[in-house]
Amino acid sequence: MAEPRHRAGPAQERLRIGHTLAWMEKRVGDVVGTSADRPGDDFQGQADPTQMDCVDVATNLTSYLLVLEANGFIKHHAVAPLYVKEDLRKGLSGWTHYAAIIVENQSKKKYAVDGWLLPSGKEPEIVEVERWYIDDRDIAVKAHM
């Protein structure tokens, strides 16, 4: 989260947050045994302690964000409570989903921080809440790159 020499704004801070959360997830996952977490819900992984659902991922990311915030590493955003979104009219693709949330201090714009569809230790998606969970195909494509 080291700030660059030039004055960085909220967009650059979101990039640094993504890098830092990926590092934290990898570091913690190596210790607690979740580094092998596969993207999304893996129904074959039921009762497998290395696998996490979206609630686990969102809770962990929120916890890491709160640690960064409490230690003064986040200057342009505030950590908000978990966000839940669903659209059951879309069937399974609209199932209830959770994400961590940061709010830009100046604009009050909310951003979902979501790493559930990505392998453990990859940078989470940080997208405006209005655009989040509308079409997960973009995230799924990035997970396989």
Give the arrangement of secondary structure elements.
Elements (H helix, E strand, L loop, with lengths): L9 H23 L21 H17 L6 E9 L11 E8 L5 E5 L10 E4 L8 H7 L2
Antiparallel strand pairs: 1-2, 2-3, 3-4
Helix pairs in contact: 1-2
Helix segment count? 3
**Low-pLDDT segments:** 139-145
Q: What is the N-to-C order of secondary-structure elements (H for helix, E for strand)? A: HHEEEEH
Give average pLDDT, whole number: 84
Q: How large, in whole angstroms, is the Cα Rg?
A: 15 Å
Shape: globular
Number of folding domains?
1
Measured between the Cα atoms of the first and last residue, the distance is: 25 Å
User: Which structural class should the secondary elements be placed in?
Assistant: alpha+beta
Q: What is the number of beta strands?
A: 4
Helical content (DSSP H or I, runs of 4+): 25-40%
SS strand fraction: 15-25%
**How are strands sequenced across the largest beta sheet?**
1-2-3-4
